[in-house]
Amino acid sequence: MIYKVAAFYQFAALPDYRELREPLRAFCAGLELKGSVLLAQEGINGTVAGAGEAIDALTQELAHGDMFGGRLNNLELKFSTAETMPFGRLKVRLKKEIVTLGDESADPTRQVGTYVDAAEWNALIEAPDTLVLDTRNAFEVAMGTFEGALDPGIRSFGQFKDFAAEQLDPARHRRIAMFCTGGIRCEKASAHLLARGFAEVYHLKGGVLKYLEEVPEAQSRWRGECFVFDERVALGHGLQECGLRERDKDAARDE
User: Fold this and answer.
1) CB 203 within 8 A of CB 176
2) How far is 205 from 218, CA to CA, in rounded Å?
3) What angle do CA 192, 132, 203 make, to 5 degrees?
4) Domains of the chain: which residue ranges?
5) Is 175 exposed, middle or buried (0-12, 13-18, 19+ CB in 10 A)?
6) Which residues contact 160 (CB under 8 A, 6 or more apart)?
7) For residue 69, what are the CA distances in angstroms to 16, 66, 196?
8) In Å, how far are 3, 186, 229, 238 from 98, measured between CA atoms?
9) Domain named Rhodanese: which ranges (predicted)?
10) What is the CATH number that goes with domain 114-252?
11) Fold: same for 3-94 and 114-252
12) In this structure, which of 22, 149, 160, 231 has its CB flanked by the most CB atoms within 10 Å?
């Protein structure tokens, strides 16, 4: 069986997120899905896997069903496949943030950087006055990144605001193009920089996964593999599993 994997998120006001946990968990369990979903007052973030029709039923319910009442009608959604089930169980958890930065001024529902589609990304990052910024953790950067991108050297995304305060300057870094795995960390990171007075902040819509899905390998500026937080560990162009050796997988999980 080939499993369908859905990665999704949306920043949206969910004041009733605590009450949504059990209905969502029951719905996913009824479809025999496995994976992880985070719910917070600011939105939803998840990656789940299962049969193709089950994944389709979930995404339809999230975007158009009664459970969320149309509040997730702008869901950022990406699909890939796995030859074996990439998750051991189903988890639906309540969190303070769906991606943890720890800066209340960084609110993507109020302001966010300019989205750049995968097809337009190469031209932006090749411009000489653009600082290309990888917002991911150091072990993710080590597995793959865009040519010439700045590695912030952080162990967790919560450290990004400290990196920005110490290393980035609105007067010197007038145009920043940032990227992350699926786009969600850039929502928070770009909102944070805009709140600090940076004028031009761009981010790759849909993240590296969307870029690898849509941009032909011959035209790609990506080098290496893209780490994903499940048993597949890393994906390449076309969102194909990379077939890492077991010792490489173990090393990535240890991080």
Assistant:
1) no
2) 20
3) 50
4) 3-94, 114-252
5) middle
6) 101, 135, 152, 154, 185, 189, 192
7) 12, 5, 34
8) 25, 13, 15, 27
9) 126-220
10) 3.40.250.10
11) no
12) 160
Nearest to 161 by CA among 95, 104, 228, 115: 104
Are 131 and 177 contacting, i.e. CB atoms less than 8 angstroms apart? yes
Taking only the tens of pLDDT, the chain with its 255 residues reads: 899 999 999 999 999 999 999 999 999 999 999 999 999 999 999 999 999 999 999 999 999 999 999 999 999 999 989 999 999 999 999 999 999 999 988 999 899 999 999 999 999 999 999 999 999 999 999 999 999 999 999 999 999 999 999 999 999 999 999 999 999 999 999 999 999 999 999 999 999 999 999 999 999 999 998 887 666 657 788 777 775 433 343 433 333
- Residue-wise over 83-112: b if at least 16 C-beta within 10 A, else e? eeebbeebebeeeebbbebebeebbbeeeb
End-to-end CA distance of the chain: 30
Residue type, 210: K
User: Residue 113 and residue 131: Cα distance in Å, rounded?
Assistant: 14
Return the residue matching tokens 């389709």. 56
Give the Cα separation of 252 and 255 in Å (integer): 5
| Element holding 40 (H helix, E strand) | strand 34-40
d(CA 110, CA 55): 30
Helix (H, G, I), strand (E, B) or coil at 45: strand
**Length of the chain measured in residues:** 255
DSSP 2: P
- Give catalytic residue positions: 180
Interatomic CA distance for residues 175 and 201, integer angstroms: 6
